Each structure stands twice: as structure tokens, then as C-alpha cells.
Amino acid sequence: MGAARIAVVTSLAGAELDSDLPLLVDALRADGLAADPVAWDADVPGWERFDLAVIRSTWDYAERLGEFLAWADATARATRLRNPAPVVRWNADKRYLLELAGRGVPVVPTRIVDPGTPYGESDFDDADGVVVKPAVSAGARDTARYEPGRAADAARHARMLLDQGRTVMVQPYLPLVEEGERALVFIGGAFSHAIRKGPVLTEPGVIDNCRMPHPDVASYRPTEAELRTARAALAAAPSSPELLFARVDLALDQAREPAVMELELIEPNLFLGHSPEGLQRLVAAVAASC
Fold this sequence. Notes:
By secondary structure, the chain is α+β, with helices and mostly antiparallel strands.
């Protein structure tokens, strides 16, 4: 019997920029698996020729969400998809944060403004300022923070997104994020490794879609409170036993307690270059999934 065939699913941008991609493909091949990077929208003969499709850097999905979700559903019918298509659909819209909060998970307080929903400048006012972003986005695209007293500017940002038919997410700005965001990586449901990175929204009032999404990355040892919060978020996600990988992004609130900023289950950077052990854990989990 031949080696299991693995599609490591990427995109045009991902193939160029994903530092995890060559590490994972080479490690899978070294483990005896027939692994190939394949763009999700590539004109391939058929996804059924693969034993497993592992989504890794489909970094253009937010701009083509309907097409991407249709691809995930079709691919899941043709082969085993990880993470599973229902998880992909659930995680694609950041209003999942409301669901996590409803299940008792500490999250950054989140307000959702849908197109056609009435709102006022007071919805964009907070003691430490606010962050405005699309509910469907990746890599902090079309996202900015606004200082206190700049509610009118934040509302204009929201109006721009709403006029495009996009749902808006508004969160208070957490000043302690300047001490670094925490990203905890889980493989096969178990904690693997973590990094801390510098703040992304460094210039208030600026939408910068060319900013580095992960500045000043360094290995990090999470606290017990951070691990508890991350595990609570994973437990509240659908199909959690089937999650091949996950990344939980945390920040500290005013009480220095961890709160979930995002639960990344589709195509997160897993920072495998910072954890050779994490890379091997992922290879083992992929092999087991075959």
C-alpha cells in the first residue's frame, strides 16, 4: 500500500508568505507521507485523490467567503478535511465570540453592528478607546483602533464597512495588549506551545492592510490562567474532539486576567519555526488522522 496522500491546503499569498508551509510539507514527507502544498482554488483533478486535506494558509478566504465555504463543504464530501467544514463555517464569522461569552468563556467584550442596524456615535465610545473591524477578516485587514474622544472617526470607519455590506465588530481597546498578545497553539486538542507577539494596532486611527500581522514574535510560557481560558474556549467550540489544530489568541484585561481575542480554527499561523516539538506533534496528529 502506498503512502497516504496529504494535501496541505494554501493559497497564492500563503504559498509565498507561509513560513510554516515548507516546514510542515518537508516534515510530513520525512515521516513517509506523500504531502503536497495545494491552493484551495487550484484546478486539481479531484480532492478525492487525497486521503486528507489539511487547511493551513488559505489567507484569502475572507475576501471570497462564500466561495471558500462552498469549497470546504465540497472537499469534505470528497475526502477528510481538517479542520472539519462545520468548524470552518462557524469560525469564519467572529460573532462566534458572542457564543463563547454566552457559554461563560472570558472574551474581549464585543458588540456587533449589522448592515441596516441603527447605531450612534455612543456605540463607538469607551474609556480607553475602541477597535473597529469587520466580523469576517484575516490578518487584521480593514481594522483600526481609535483613542477616546474619536468616536466620530470610529463611526465613519464602521459606516465604510457597512456600506460594503459587511458586519462590523466593535471592542474596547485593552491597553495591556501593549505588553504583548499571547497565542496558544493546540494540536489534537492538547496544548503544544505558545508565543508572545507585539501589538499590531500601533497607530491609532490608521487602517494599514500592509502591517506585519505578527511583530516581535518570541516563545512564551503561558500562565495557568491563560491555559484555563484557552481550554475553556476550545471546549465551547463545535466539534472540538475533531480539531487537528487550534490557536487561541489572548490579551490581558484591566484586572490582568486573560480574555480571548480570537479563536483561530481555520488557517492560523502556528509558529512552527519556534517549536520543533510542535512541528513533530502536528506531523504525528496528521499521520493519525489518515
